[in-house]
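Ticket 4471: requesting a sanity check on a complex prediction with WTA. Repro inputs:
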Amino acid sequence: MSNYHIKHLEEYYQVYRKSVRNPEAFWEEIAEEHFVWRKRWDNVLSWDFKKPEIKWFEGAKLNITENCLDRHLPTRGDKTAIIFEPNDPKEEALHITYRELHERVCRMANVLLGHGVKKGDRVCIYLPMIPELSVALLACARIGAIHSVVFAGFSSHALATRINDSDCKIVITSDGSFRGSKSIDLKGIVDKALEGCPGVANVLVAKRTNAKIDMLKGRDKWLQPLLDEAYADCVAEIMDAEDPLFILYTSGSTGTPKGMVHTTAGYMVYSAYTFKNVFQYTENDVYWCTADIGWITGHSYIVYGPLANGATTLMFEGVPSYPDYGRFWDVVEKHKVNQFYTAPTAIRALAKENLDYVEKHDLSSLKVLGSVGEPINEEAWHWYNNNVGKKNSPIVDTWWQTETGGIMITPIPYVTPTTPTYATLPFIGIQPALMDENGQEIKGNQVDGRLCIKFPWPSISRTIWGNHDRYRDTYFSAYENMYFTGDGALRDAVGYYRITGRVDDVIIVSGHNLGTAPIEDSINEHPAVAESAIVGFPHDVKGNALYGYVILKETGESRDRENLRKEINQQITEHVGPIAKLDKIQFVSGLPKTRSGKIMRRILRKIASNDTSNLGDTSTLLNPEVVQEIMDNAL
Ligand code: WTA
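Returned structure tokens:
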């Protein structure tokens, strides 16, 4: 019997047991029955978390786009694959069928081939949420090129760092992007980035805003005329199961962003299987994930997971507040959305607005509500459940990461009874463990610890691009034979998991992962700044906001503080992007440091959160006197 679609709680437990007792047999059956392969695998799984080396479906040959497109053509050729809902509701939505999408992907693939892009080459995609974005991902996959999507809210500096880290030879972008009432000069950002990227030979530019932009002769080309001329079919490159499919950068505790590498077969199987079950997708449903494709949520649950299931997936270009705070609900009503997947920060922002924005829309099509990216607090959970789901649509609080490729801990709607703020049970095949500080697993229930995973799942990332040592050190060295997530979690009396947040220096602001290092680096580049440290503090909409402690150089001391604050945030906007701006900036004379010179962020975090009754052990501090000063002047 197929275990592809789980419909009852007993079935979940039964399939879960099967998946952990004999993972190879389990995943082999799923892979065999639900995907098309050019050649079968020789071996389902080989792994060693020490090296670390993980291989799924080794020896198999396939192309993921044949699974996402070609195989649907006979039965679903005229079905809508992508609904494109533009930023401006007055502009007409597009319905792109599977046949049309196949053709668009083939044309784009041929354009890439025509520009010398070959299997294994890296292609940087820096596009707004327009159909060309999904098409570009799939076009790369069609020819075996590795896509590296950079979220189009990142600055030119952040873009250049990512382009150079993975040696992209071509960039796909647009003249600009629309976000609510604003339009953004994306091409200008790309031009600035490329001043520092000598390896980029071509820039393909999609037209969206019709803004006047500079086109560099020989390097920059308008995409549409090339697509119009290109041949509408393109033979798929046959890939090995473990060939890289894409690189996606995520923030680390320290240092530069990490280019997480996902490979082809395992990623396909797991993103598709989780999509089917976590959203209980059935034929003719309309599914909408509000994430940007610049993040992993968009890769797995706007593009690959839905398309591998022949689903209709909605791409939304705009923002929840434009033209008013009812936009999400307007889109749900207009397209009769059945599954809606968003982030807690969006829910909290909308919950602040008048309830009329929700109530004037017919949301009766909704069957499943999803949440992702950060812990969902109880108030937001109830607001979502009461006002959007009308207590009729289960909420799936899905915990996962860029590194995991797919959803790891989650309820299955209509199957798993939900509890607010709990991601509940491990998904099929996932073996979580809670670890203590001495490296021991904490067994039993009603415990909390550091969240690890004991056994590989098909879509675990395989390495960090160009830095396998960092991959091992970050994820596999904290606990022997375990993948360490960087999150803390508790397991309650019935075995449900609740994610309590990061235990490292990654800060999640409005659902976006931000590492402290690149932000501090950009602050320190300001001529008046000597040193800085940033920490997160609780914020009622963003979840966390950033608090910066800044030491000025002597030359900066006489400067106007408000102006300095503005300049520092401007500096961050240019180096990282507006998402990393600081909410509070406190000028200090020193930072609390240990004798080995490490900043004690724990103390700074407590001061930023206004929680100074117990600062914990401060005996290893080199300079305890600055703590009092910082507390006295806290913002
Ligand atoms: C956090 C996003 C609590 C967590 C898919 C994780 C969550 C990080 C949840 C990964 C959730 C994600 N509950 N925390 N449901 N989902 N997180 O790589 O800290 O952008 O480690 O992947 O977001 O963020 P990333």
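Notes from triage: The longest helix spans residues 98-114. Leaving this open until the requester confirms.
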